[in-house]
Each structure stands twice: as C-alpha cells, then as structure tokens.
C-alpha cells in the first residue's frame, strides 16, 4: 500500500484560491498512491487567526469541492487535511477524507484546540466525536495536530478498529522535538502506523517544523521529510499491524478505567 504525504508550504503571498488549485494539482500528481494526505489548515495557515473568520467555509464549500474532484480524478483515498469550517455561528477545525470516487468517507472536527485560552482555543469550537475511516486495507483513525499530545484519544481510536492514525498538523519548528517523539510514542503504544503530515513555510510568522513522518507499528521511522515543501512517499504493509500485535500482545494487558481515588475531603494533598 502506497501513501504520499504532501508537505505543502503556506506562503502568505499566495491567495487561498491559488493554494487550493495548487494543492488539487499536487493531489492529482499522486495518482499512483493508494492514500494521499495534506496538512492541517493549509488553506489559511494554522496560526493565521485573523483569517479564520474571513476565510471560513461551509462543510461543502470550495475546499470540499476542489478536494473531492482531485480525489476522483486521481482515484485515490484522500485525507484533504483540515480547513476552517463554519456551521452557523460556530467555527471548527475540520478534516475531510474522500474515497477514490470523490465521495466524503468521513469528516472529523478537531477535539483538542491549541492556544491555552487564546487563538484556536477561543476562536473555534471543539469536536466531540472520534472518527475512523473504513479503508478496505488499513482502517485509520483521525486526529489533528495538538490531538497528538493526548494518548487517550488514540486508545479510543484503537478500540474503534484503527490500525493506523493519520495526523495532519501545523506544528511549529520550536517544538519539533515533541512532534517526532510523540509520533513515535503513539505508534509504539498502540502498535499502529502513524502518518503525520506537517506544513512547510511560516503561518502568520510562525515557522513550521515540516518533518512529516511515517512510523510503523514497532516505532520504526519509515520515512521523514525535511523542512521545505516536498512529497513524502512510503510503502506500508497493512499485515504488519496484526503481526506486531500478535507477536508482542501488549494491548491485551491494558487495564481500562484506572483512576486515583481522592481522599475523603475530595482534595489531593502535596
């Protein structure tokens, strides 16, 4: 199974319409792939907060239409990254996955919003539902950027049948070490493939880490990009997930629902 991660650069001098056309052309160029992935918020930039409201779209807006057509033309499964979705008065960081006939297979609204009471955390609403795409060879769970820091989300995706995780991101260069570490950790602890697709360039002056990466179920890095725009292509063996889980069956030893009991006064001391 061949997967291509398109680490597109977000250039502030390029219009959203122009970048949308360019992204669609890049997807069409990957017709030899089985799965193509774009990064988080590539139409506007993950840190371009002032553009969230002005460039927000309905679910079936211009980005949906362009990516649906590109998936159908290339005959690929396409994770079209994410865009700013407007639903009534609410904004969401929404990912779209299309089947090779251009039909929407699954959408996902990012659950964990970054910003610590600023930026995305206050401008966007949180998603509430886990999402697994029933790919015929490699069912994959959906997560977005900051979600990578929350392992319980990935446990939930494994329980829902995921054998891989596809994670578009707009991850900053200054925390690139965390990006690489967490991608491998999510692969190792869940014995699943991780396909993490970042962006190149800068979003509203925030330098992006790039370094899109594909990690196998044993935690080995199969391929890693640099910091500039490029397409990272790798061959996956879907059977390796079941083989890894059978040869080292750590998942069966999970003890769900562990919590620390509170003292009688309801407060932890120390």
UniProtKB/TrEMBL annotation:
Segments forming a coiled coil: none
Domain of life according to the entry: Bacteria
Stretches assigned to the CN hydrolase domain: 1-238
Name of the protein: 2-oxoglutaramate amidase
Gene3D superfamilies per record: Carbon-nitrogen hydrolase
InterPro entries per the UniProt record, alphabetical: C-N_Hydrolase (IPR003010), C-N_Hydrolase_sf (IPR036526), UPF0012_CS (IPR001110)
Top-level class of the enzyme under EC nomenclature: hydrolase
Keywords, ordered alphabetically: Acyltransferase, Hydrolase, Transferase
One Pfam family in the UniProt entry: CN_hydrolase
Family: Belongs to the carbon-nitrogen hydrolase superfamily. NIT1/NIT2 family.
GO MF entries: 2-oxoglutaramate amidase activity; acyltransferase activity
Catalytic activity, EC: 3.5.1.111
């Amino acid at each position: 199974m061949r997967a291509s991660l398109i680490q597109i650069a977000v250039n502030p001098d390029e219009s959203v319409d122009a970048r949308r056309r360019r992204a669609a052309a890049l997807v069409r160029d990957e017709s030899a792939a089985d799965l193509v992935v774009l990064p988080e918020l590539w139409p506007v930039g993950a840190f371009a907060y002032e553009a969230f409201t002005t460039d927000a779209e309905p679910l079936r807006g211009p980005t949906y239409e362009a990516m649906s057509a590109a998936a159908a033309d290339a005959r690929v499964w396409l994770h079209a990254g994410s865009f700013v979705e407007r639903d009534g008065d609410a904004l969401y960081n929404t990912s779209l996955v299309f089947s090779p006939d251009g039909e929407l297979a699954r959408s996902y609204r990012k659950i964990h919003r970054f910003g610590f009471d600023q930026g995305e955390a206050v401008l966007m609403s949180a998603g509430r539902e886990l999402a697994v795409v029933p790919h015929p060879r490699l069912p994959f769970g959906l997560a977005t950027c900051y979600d990578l820091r929350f392992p319980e989300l990935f446990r939930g995706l494994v329980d829902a049948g995921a054998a891989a995780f596809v994670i578009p991101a707009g991850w900053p260069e200054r925390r690139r070490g965390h990006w690489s570490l967490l991608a491998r950790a999510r692969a190792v602890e869940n014995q699943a493939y991780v396909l993490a697709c970042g962006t190149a360039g800068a979003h509203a002056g925030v330098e992006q880490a790039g370094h899109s990466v594909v990690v196998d179920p044993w935690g080995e890095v199969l391929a890693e990009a640099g910091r500039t725009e490029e397409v990272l292509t790798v061959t996956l063996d879907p059977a390796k997930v079941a083989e890894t889980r059978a040869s080292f069956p750590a998942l069966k030893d999970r003890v769900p629902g562990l919590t620390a009991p509170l003292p009688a006064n309801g407060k932890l001391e120390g």
